[in-house]
Amino acid sequence: MKRGLVVLDPAEVPADEWQARTAAVQADLAAQGVDVALVYGDVFASDDIAHLTNLCIYWNEGMLAVPASGETVFLTKLSPRVHPWMRRISTVERIESGRSFGALVTKLLGERPAGTVGLADAARWPAAIVDEVRAALPGWQVRELPGLVGDRRAVVSEHELALLRTGAEVVGRAAHEACGAGLTPFARTATVERIVRGAGFLDVQTNTTQAPDGVVGVQVTGQYRTGWLHAARLAGAEDSAWAGTLRAALDAAVDAARAGATGETLAEAAAPALAKLPEGTDAQVRWVNQTDLASAGEYRRRAASDPLPAGAVVAVTVDVLFAAGDYAALADTVLVTEGGARNLTGTHEEAAK
Fold first, then answer.
1. 114-142 burial, b if ≥16 CB within 10 A, otherwise e?
2. What is the pLDDT of residues 118-155, one digit of tens each?
3. pLDDT at position 353, please?
4. 164 falls in which pLDDT band (50, 70, 90)?
C-alpha cells in the first residue's frame, strides 16, 4: 500500500496540461470509433489513472471512464466517505462507488445506446475484471486498447521533467548516503526512508544485495508525484576491481543512451568493460522507462530493439549474477536527448567526489 504525500499544485502542473492529457486521449478514442475507454488501476499499477487525474489509489482498486467527449468518471469500490478527499487531490469531479465494477459500468453506460467500449491495456488487468466488464455490457463491442495512456506517458512534458529532476536528486542522494561505511542492512533502508519520505515522495522501494568481496548493493526506486526514479549503488567497493569494471560499463551504457539508441546499442557500448568481469559471471544491460518502474519493467516488457525516444526519462541498469550466486547492480535515471543522455540521479554522487 502506498503511504506517501499526494499533491495537486497548479504551480507544478497547470490545469491546462491536465486538460490536454485527457483531450489527447479523447481525440484518439474519437479517431478509433470508441465511445468510452475504461482505464483500470489498483495499488500495484494506477499510474495511467494518475497521469490523467492525479488520483492516487492508496488501497483497493478503481476504474476511470473516459468518454470520447464529456467528463471523465471515476468508478470505485471505496466508500463515498473518501470522495471529498479524492476530489481535493485530483481533477475528477464525478465519482461513483459500488460493490462491483460490473454494476458500476452498467449504471454508467446501461442507459446509453450500445456502442464500443475500449479497455486500456487490458492485458494488464485481472482477468476476472475483464470478464466482469464484458458480461455487464451485452450488445456492446468491447475492444482492447493497448498503450492508450501508457504510450503517451513515455515522453515527459516540461513540467513532468522539472518534477523528475527534483525527485532524481533525492533518490541519487539517498542511494549514495545509504552506502555509508559500517551501516547495517536495516540502517541502509532506514537512511533511504528518512531521506526519500522526508522529501514528500509518494512511494519508495529499497533493496539490498550481497556481492563478492564484502560489497553490498543498494537499490532505490521512488515515486515523486506521478513520476518514478531509480538508482543503484555499491557500498564497500573501493578495493574491488570488478566494481570499477561495473561502473565503467554503466558509464558506457549511459553515454550511449541517446535518442534512437536501443537496448542492443547500450549492451554493445558496455560490452568491452563487462568482458573484464570474473569468469562465470552473467551480466546484462537494460533500460526501463520511468513510467514502468513501479514494477521494475515487468508489466511492460520492451524489446531489445526498441529505440529510445527523445524526451524520455529512463533507468539504465547494468547488473551481474556471479558464479557463486551473488548479485550486484549499478543504475542511474537519465533524460534521453538527441545529443545524448543527461544523468539525473548521478549528479549528487559526482558532486561528492
1. eebbbbbbbebbeeebbebbbebbeebeb
2. 999 999 999 999 999 999 999 999 999 999 999 999 99
3. 43
4. very high
Cα–Cα dist 124/122, whole Å: 5
Separation of alpha carbons 93 and 91, rounded Å: 7
Residues contacting residue 79 through CB under 8 Å, at least 6 positions apart: 97
C-alpha cell at 156: 515527459
Return the closest-CA partner of residue 209 out of 197, 199, 218, 222. Answer: 218
- Burial class from Cβ neighbours inside 10 Å (0-12, 13-18, 19+) for residue 311 reads middle
CA 234 to CA 218: how far, in whole Å? 6
DSSP-H helix ranges across 33-94: 47-53, 83-88
Can you tell me which residue has the cell 542492512?
185
Q: Phi-psi region for residue 140, left (φ > 0), alpha (ψ -120 to 50) or beta?
A: beta
pLDDT at 351: 42
What is the grid cell recorded at 77? 469500490
Residues belonging to the chain: 353
Report CA dihedral (306, 308, 312, 313) to the nearest 10 degrees: 90
Residue type, 319: D
116 bridge partner residues: 141
| Rounded Cα–Cα distance for residues 200 and 178 (Å) | 18
253-275 average pLDDT score: 97
**For the whole prediction, is pTM greater than 0.90?**
yes
Buried b / exposed e across 42-74, counting CB within 10 Å, b at 16+?
beebbbbbbbbbbbbbbeebbbbbbbbeeebbb
Helix %, strand %, coil % of the chain (to 5): 40, 25, 35
DSSP strand pairing (141-145 vs 116-120): parallel
